[in-house]
């Protein structure tokens, strides 16, 4: 199968290139339309009690969006500014789509702010909201913060596009410079970028197709785009490096491309499948956001893999004569081999000390607290964040936690509703309760919590309210209830997701190596590196240590999607490098080299390429850190750390230590499994070079 795919690209390179040009045109011509369809809502928790309660409220009628404005920076009684505010309010009331405008409310706390609330009709709300914001911003002599409703929704999409553009502008030149240093030639350096661009185009097209059927999150466009760039460069780097090595032995371009596709192509195939499998674990969760991230991520990985196995061989055939062959390298010495041999002299001590250090770094993850998020996740110059900050100073009640909504299937006149309200008011952590008629037979009891939504006290209050008796059906909804349901969903589905990923990884690595023990070793070492990365993310973004370095503050929680996405993507990338490394170790072992020497030589042979690939991925994922969304920064830091730890600590210390301890059992499997492996192994034969390849 692999030979057929790569063979066609090598035989008909121009047809393959034209096909990919059409994909690029479609992706960048049509697929970029996805930026206008992004949503900031995540974790809808479909089917949960909170989701059903929200649906019952929505069924009573469409909610009218609201735009909020704070005019501040001057005394509330300033006649000049007050006259401008009154004039602006009069003009806003005349804007089509505006239903109601509240009178300006002065700040009782500071006396230097005015609060204005604008209710919009549910039709054409975006145009009305934009017109309202433009008119209010014309007020001079004071600062004006306007956000909410469609303004905030649009801001999420705009911020996502800006973040992607900024990240690509900053990282692409760095990646190109690094590739030039690695390959020493513009053509060889440019090919990985071409594959990455093809992956990005495919990403836009895939997400645009997803947007026809479901919501696409701002996080999805950022994560999948950077993943497409990172993996595209990684896979192409491996292929181009092997092509240069093959040409050093046999200068015939077509023959070198064929052998490259057969050897490095097999590695790319298994590496891509392992990353896709790790992302497939997200599909197990019932949250539509995580499912869509899993499906989109899998599709993006497969696009990158397909580009590396088709577009790249075609380009190698067409441009290969302009790519310099690799220089001869030592395989029995060098820095990486010396480090590996040093570890092999004390493998048990190295393994224990390294594992203990990673466990220590991972300890903060035990205090992980999830949250839905608030405007502090946005950059300080965004309208939504400016409104949040202005409310915090002048109208702190405006930033109070959203109420826990007890949706009672009874009219507000029912005596049972009053009794339930009194019982809810007696729940610990509840400050007050308001009964709001929502329909003929629906009453919403808004219970306002004392603490923030992510606090244990508020979540316990949700559970307590759900346990209260009532003579009618009561569905508890609201943000706090949604968070409780989401955490319960994660706890329920996580074992299944982990089982799918771990079992699938074990099977794939067995098919790749024929070993029973190496796949288990890979899963355990990768878990350590992921735990350490998550520990640092919690330490920074939840607890606030060094948060200022990343332009944010400690939120007291992590956004509920960050740990899941970091774990899934980081696991896939970690196994990705495991495949790169094991492929060369296995080559040496099959060539008859003793186990310890095969490990050292394999680490030496892959040292430069894995270090280069990891460095490029670190650069690409660092683009997350310059974005505006704090959750994206958390994902970026987690992935940067996971890749760095895996490419250094795991590869240089844990891998040689554990493989030395295993010794001759590294590639051992029982007789029946050995026979099974011979039947399922993807072993592509290619014309042999005139003499053994350098690497």
CATH architecture of the largest domain: Up-down Bundle
Number of strands: 13
Number of helices: 21
- CATH fold-level topology of the largest domain: Multidrug efflux transporter AcrB transmembrane fold
Domains (count): 3
Protein name: Putative membrane protein
Family: Belongs to the resistance-nodulation-cell division (RND) (TC 2.A.6) family. MmpL subfamily.
Membrane topology: Multi-pass membrane protein
Pfam families: MMPL
Structure in words:
It contains 21 helices and 13 strands. With 695 residues, it is α+β, with helices and mostly antiparallel strands. The protein has 3 domains: 2-40 and 154-374 and 485-680, Multidrug efflux transporter AcrB transmembrane domain (Multidrug efflux transporter AcrB transmembrane fold, Up-down Bundle); 66-147, Alpha-Beta Plaits (2-Layer Sandwich); 403-477, Alpha-Beta Plaits (2-Layer Sandwich), CATH 3.30.70. It starts with a helix and ends in a 15-residue tail after the last helix.
Q: What is the element layout, followed by pairings?
A:
Elements: H1 2-11, H2 13-29, E1 38-39, H3 49-59, E2 66-72, H4 79-93, E3 98-101, E4 105-106, E5 113-120, H5 125-136, E6 143-147, H6 150-183, H7 186-211, E7 216-217, H8 218-249, H9 253-280, H10 288-319, H11 335-345, H12 347-362, E8 370-371, H13 383-394, E9 404-408, H14 415-425, E10 430-439, E11 442-449, H15 456-466, E12 474-477, H16 479-513, H17 517-542, E13 558-559, H18 562-590, H19 595-622, H20 630-662, H21 671-680
Parallel strand pairs: 1-7, 8-13
Antiparallel strand pairs: 2-5, 2-6, 3-5, 4-5, 9-11, 9-12, 10-11
Helix pairs in contact: 1-2, 1-9, 1-10, 2-7, 2-10, 4-5, 6-7, 6-8, 6-19, 7-8, 7-10, 8-9, 8-10, 8-19, 9-10, 9-16, 9-18, 11-19, 11-20, 12-17, 12-20, 15-16, 16-17, 16-18, 17-18, 17-20, 18-19, 18-20, 19-20
Keywords: Cell membrane, Membrane, Transmembrane, Transmembrane helix
Protein name: Putative membrane protein
GO cellular component, one term: plasma membrane
